[in-house]
Recover the amino acids of this structure.
């Protein structure tokens, strides 16, 4: 550590002085300086999204004018500037529920403007086939984390990603449940082979639990199944869910595991705050949902994508037109 008591004093390098030459005063003084950094622990954040469902922009709904990617991109970038020790993840179903190649392509490009650390593909992505999945990897600019999918083979995906923030190691896994494929035709659902989520997570945890400080599981199987997963695997710290599109304003804690989800259609971005003590143990885990309101700033590049969609598809949100007329 190098520090200076005033602008004209010679910098003092504590590390360059042999320990036997230090007086009790210099040692106490050094500890006094570093204690505020390490003594009170530190905080990291997780921003999470799910079930965007191909929504590029705010729905302009009279009862719930919230969403979507044009607001999210600016919010996430601003949050990262204020809180650099933040991890950004998505739990899947960012494609439209019904196959819309143009919309899906533009949504993928919009996602590339958001610095996601890890994305779990949902059923709405996996059921599009191998070509679509390969296209996602080329364009989305984020790592796809899939821990229990045997088929189809997702080129370049990973079963585990370890992200480091402020010296803290967070292990991120991603699992899908068979229930997410329940309503697809058999020729589609049978082509997707999944390992049991509990077994898949358990096997990975055996290898990495002692190597990471926090375990975060992205789960695409529904809120009830996430609760079941937490009851069986207390070694998990956080489960971020999807598929059931549950709006969880106050995350549920089950078996010591924090479980949450951020609704649908880009209406919300979930925020999780993890407070750690100096021994890298979790002191508290809390969360809330941030609404993407109509008054928030638009991301200019995503607004260009919205315009491209309107020009090529001929579809413009009528509620949006009425809003602009006011």
């Amino acid at each position: 550590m190098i520090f200076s008591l005033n602008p004209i004093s010679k910098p003092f390098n504590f590390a360059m002085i042999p320990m036997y030459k230090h007086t009790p005063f210099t040692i106490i003084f050094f500890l006094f300086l570093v204690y505020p950094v390490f003594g009170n622990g530190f905080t990291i954040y997780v921003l999470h999204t799910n079930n965007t469902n191909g929504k590029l922009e705010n729905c302009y709904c009279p009862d719930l004018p919230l969403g979507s990617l044009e607001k999210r991109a600016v919010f996430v970038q601003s949050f990262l500037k204020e809180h650099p020790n933040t991890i950004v993840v998505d739990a899947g179903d960012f494609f439209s529920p019904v196959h819309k190649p143009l919309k899906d392509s533009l949504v993928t490009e919009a996602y590339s403007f958001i610095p996601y650390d890890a994305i779990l593909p949902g059923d709405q992505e996996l059921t599009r086939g191998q070509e679509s999945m390969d296209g996602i990897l080329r364009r989305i600019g984020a790592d796809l984390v899939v821990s229990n999918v045997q088929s189809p083979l997702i080129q370049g995906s990973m079963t585990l990603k370890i992200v480091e923030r402020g010296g803290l190691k967070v292990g991120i896994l991603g699992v899908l449940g068979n229930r997410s494929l329940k309503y697809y035709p058999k020729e589609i659902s049978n082509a997707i082979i999944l390992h049991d989520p509990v077994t898949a997570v358990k096997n990975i945890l055996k290898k990495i639990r002692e190597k990471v400080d926090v375990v975060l599981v992205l789960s695409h199987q529904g809120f009830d199944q996430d609760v079941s997963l937490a009851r069986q695997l207390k070694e998990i710290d956080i489960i971020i869910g999807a598929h059931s599109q549950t709006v969880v304003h106050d995350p549920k804690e089950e078996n010591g595991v924090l479980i949450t989800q951020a609704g649908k259609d880009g209406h919300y971005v979930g925020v999780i705050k993890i407070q750690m003590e100096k021994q890298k143990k979790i002191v508290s885990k809390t969360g809330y949902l941030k609404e993407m309101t109509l008054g928030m700033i638009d991301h200019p590049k995503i607004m260009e994508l919205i315009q491209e969609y309107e020009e090529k598809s001929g579809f413009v949100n009528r509620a949006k037109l009425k809003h602009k007329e006011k």
Observations:
- The first strand starts at residue 2 and ends at 3.
